[in-house]
Amino acid sequence: MPKLSAGLLLYRTGDAGLEVLIAHPGGPFWARKDDGAWSIPKGEYSAGDDPWETARREFTEELGVQPPDGPRLELGEVRQSGGKVVTGYAVAGDLDITDARSNTFEMEWPPRSGKLQQFPEVDRVDWVSIEEARVKLLKSQLPLLDRLLTAVA
Question: What is the DSSP letter of 67?
């Protein structure tokens, strides 16, 4: 059974057109990766859990702020390269990310050093245009972006 994950793609429309809020994973593995490394804020859940509630909870944990309330768009599922199945949702809203702060995780770093270090789960979040999101997002999540565009057209 593949791992299950649910995420929330926040979007807004302004003078610059449609923008989405995406997150860069924290930790040493992702430190020097940019294009093709970003993700929608998301997290794992167990079979039987509500993916919508998971998406909202994980958004809050990864950004340190509550997502806006509003009608949700169901973007369906995508399968990431590692096999994880991500259920995506979108909500319209303008969120100030100036004070966004992620929860942390602990891992041994450097490898085999015996030293445990804490890293933010997400080290950056940014509002980006659809064109920039196509470059920044994990390739496997691009269908979520396409489905958002279809839904708001």
Answer: P
Note whether 7 and 55 are within 8 A (CB). Answer: yes
Mean predicted confidence (pLDDT) in 22-29: 95
Map residue 147 onto helix, strand or coil.
helix
8 A C-beta contact, residue 105 and residue 118: yes
Compute φ and ψ for 97, nearest 5 degrees.
-105, 10
Pick the CATH number of 4-152 from 3.30.110.170, 3.90.79.10, 2.60.210.10, 3.40.50.970: 3.90.79.10
Question: Global pTM?
Answer: 0.93
pLDDT score for 14: 77
Q: Is the pLDDT of residue 15 over 80?
A: no
What are 89-101's pLDDT values in tens digits? 999 999 999 889 9
SS3 145: helix
Q: Which residue from 40, 35, 38 is spatially nearest to 135, judged by alpha carbons?
A: 35
Distance, CA of 88 to CA of 51 (rounded, Å):
9
